[in-house]
Amino acid sequence: MPISELTAFEKAAVAGLSSKAGLAAALLAIWPELPEGSHQTAQSITAMAQLGVTEERGAKDVLDKAAQLGLLDSEKAGYVARRHGHAVFRRLSFALRAIDHYLTNAHQDATTAQIVLTKPPRPSVLEDELAQLGWRTADVEPTEHAFHSMVQSARHRVVVMTPFFDVKGAVWLKELFSQVGKGVSRLLILRSLEDPSRADYPIGYDAVASWLVSERVDVYNYSIPRPEGYGRETFHAKVVLCDVDVAYVGSSNLTSASLEHSMEMGISVKGKAAADVAIVIEAVLRAAKRIT
Description:
By secondary structure, this protein is α+β, with helices and mostly antiparallel strands. The protein is built from eleven helices and 13 strands. Helix 1 (8-17) crosses helix 5 (86-106). The protein is globular.
């Protein structure tokens, strides 16, 4: 049945699941192959769709949304399809795959960018020199304000990626994640968690490890030994990503030096550039080891 002939119920379901169109399409495609009345968990349906463990949290979000939309029932034993018929799930999967293809391969959002700046404490020679050049730092969004505004608008997921993380940064991270709306996933990507003796071990993690667990923050360690036994694959990027809509990429670490003393500068981007950042972050999550 062409998309134009979807029923009102089906159109509402597509609209409700379109924010995770590709994942939703993959999951809904499985249901017609299952016995009627079959109960499935997010883990089992993700495995049957041949998706990785990093998709399990997203799969649960999709299944919960599908239950809210009336496609599934959420029961103690898991999720079970309502009696809509296999054709409904096939049509919805097809429509969602088309949306995902369009967003991934055809649609081109305009990229907008804004400078985000952490100024050195006053008195600052840098700020004086910038003023002499006619550049008003007051017109640039402060880093902390930019981050809070970004995460408050997130609807599905907030990812913070930092290679350096100390106790001051841990306090700052807790405050940032407290700005995230209810039901929005929070992820933290660090490095060197496998070896506390490393000079760049993120000591801020130890300060908030129990809090991260209690708050259900997913922590990933992107620090992979190279096959030849020399060195490792890791990162130096500093990123805050909200959904696939807005991202910060810059120099600011979650450390006392970055947050209180140094001049740090980055770019907050929206549109296609943010979507491209989201693809890179998704690859990082697939490569990294999940800690919690």
